[in-house]
Design goal:
The protein has a 5-stranded antiparallel beta sheet, sandwiched between helices. 44% of the residues lie in helices and 19% in strands. By secondary structure, it is α+β, with helices and mostly antiparallel strands. The protein starts with a helix and ends with a helix. The chain is globular. Strand 4 and strand 5 form a beta hairpin.
């Protein structure tokens, strides 16, 4: 084989390897490829533990927030819509209704993740509490897990950041 052909072949092989590496790196960071194992209550505990919040708020979440399973009877109240499709779900809310906050974790069919997030945000009622309103609603996902949170901006942002850190 001639030197020019060897160089051309070597360059071609290097380019192919570089392109393969770039493609692989892109897929590794894609949150749809990640699956978080475990019980939803354990995952929520990790999110709360990792949230960058003051100690008083974190203590309240641990001691004065109720976590419950989403059922046919309570799902619309927390999801804002009946057409949200999920395989399992939990919600965390304060026991006292003077705090505008709720956090929902859902396992959904991976093909439904984007539509579930859209439905949740389109139907989010920031004024659903008596006398108080949430600042924002956010819906994020990692693999088949969808987080839907409504609350004060700093709390919602901290919960979402902690959730994203689970990847």
């Amino acid at each position: 084989m001639k030197t020019k052909s060897k160089k051309t072949l070597s360059i071609l092989v290097i380019l192919i390897l570089c392109m393969s590496a770039c493609t692989a790196c892109g897929k590794a960071g894609d949150s749809t490829d990640v699956h978080i194992e475990g019980e939803l209550t354990d995952i929520l505990a990790q999110i709360y533990d990792g949230a960058d919040l003051d100690s008083e708020t974190k203590e309240a979440m641990a001691e004065r927030y109720m976590t419950d399973v989403l059922t046919e009877d309570n799902a619309v109240m927390f999801l804002g819509a009946s057409e949200v499709s999920y395989t399992e779900g939990i919600v965390s809310v304060p026991l006292m209704n003077v705090i505008p906050y709720q956090c929902v974790l859902l396992r959904v069919n991976p093909d439904d993740v984007d539509s579930v997030k859209t439905i949740l945000l389109e139907n989010a009622d920031l004024n659903k509490w008596v006398c108080v309103s949430a600042d924002k609603a956010e819906a994020e996902s990692i693999g088949d897990l969808v987080l839907f949170v409504m609350g004060e901006e700093n709390v919602a942002d901290a919960i979402v950041a902690s959730f994203k850190a689970l990847k």
